[in-house]
Design brief:
Structural class: alpha/beta
Distance between the termini: 44 Å
InterPro entries: HAD-like_SerB, HAD-like_sf, HAD_sf, PSP
EC number: 3.1.3.3
Order of helices and strands: EHHHHHEHEEHEHEHEH
Keywords: Amino-acid biosynthesis, Hydrolase, Magnesium, Metal-binding, Serine biosynthesis
Low-confidence stretches: 1-19
CATH class of the largest domain: Alpha Beta
Mean pLDDT: 92
Catalytic activity: O-phospho-D-serine + H2O = D-serine + phosphate; O-phospho-L-serine + H2O = L-serine + phosphate
Pathway: Amino-acid biosynthesis; L-serine biosynthesis; L-serine from 3-phospho-D-glycerate: step 3/3
CATH superfamily of the largest domain: HAD superfamily/HAD-like
Shape: globular
Length: about 240
């Protein structure tokens, strides 16, 4: 069984690094690495999308605590058949440049990870399909073939995202200064601040205001230009 709190895929060995320092690039998922908010796609099956979207927006702006907002939103999903997740997976769209970003990071011999306030049931297959070994997400509780409206295990909130960044850096033998964090919402701010290079991507104003670097989009592989610019500047 997939473990959302572990390195779950053995695929995707990186090619040789061609130049520059070795790095770990960690990206948020919903509205960053993918264009969707997965919980809203699931909420379509519960008839609660409008309610969930409103709470999601408030959480991304930093107006309410993420863990509390997650509990509130997931509660509305109670009773959704677990089979609906297959349809949700089919609707998820990668952000333009996401596939190219992963391929180039791997070509350089760097590490790439995805950390999500979304759900392992959706993220796991995406990560495996792209050869991404490092990923972490929440897990939905299921009983009797339907969602219970709860999650199981630790909540991947802003603090846990920073913990993940630090853990993966240590695991891959890198200093924190060699890490890159990319995200769009308030839930990403702790890891963006902690990383050697913190990048707001197509982000909410509160994140753009606090992140050292910003990329407006639409292609997420443009973050490589930021990384290369920093590496050129520091020598």
């Amino acid at each position: 069984m997939l473990d959302p709190l572990s390195d779950v895929s053995t695929a995707g060995a990186a090619g040789p690094r061609t130049s520059g320092r070795r790095r770990l690039v960690v990206s948020d998922v919903d509205s960053t690495f993918i264009t969707d908010e997965v919980i809203e796609l699931i909420a379509d099956h519960a008839g609660t999308r409008a309610e969930v979207t409103e709470v999601t927006e408030r959480a991304m702006r930093g107006e309410i605590d993420f863990a509390a907002s997650l509990r509130e939103r997931v509660a509305t999903l109670a009773g959704v058949p677990v089979g609906a997740l297959d349809e949700v997976r089919s609707r998820v769209r990668l952000t333009p440049g996401a596939r190219e970003l992963v391929a180039e990071v791997q070509r350089r011999g760097w590490e790439f990870g995805l950390v999500s306030g979304g759900f392992a049931e959706i993220l796991g297959p995406i990560a495996d399909s792209l050869g991404i070994r490092l990923w972490r997400a929440n897990r939905l509780e299921v009983a009797g073939g339907v969602l219970t409206g709860r999650t199981v295990g630790p909540v991947v909130d802003r603090a846990y995202k920073e913990v993940t960044l630090r853990e993966w850096a240590a695991r891959t033998g890198l200093e924190l200064r060699d890490t890159v964090a990319v995200g769009d919402g308030a839930n990403d701010l702790d890891m963006i601040r902690a990383a050697g290079i913190g990048i707001a991507f197509a982000a909410k104003p509160v994140v753009r205001a606090q992140a050292p670097f910003s990329v407006d989009g639409p292609r997420i592989d443009a973050v490589l230009d930021v990384i290369d610019s920093v590496d050129t500047t520091v020598g």
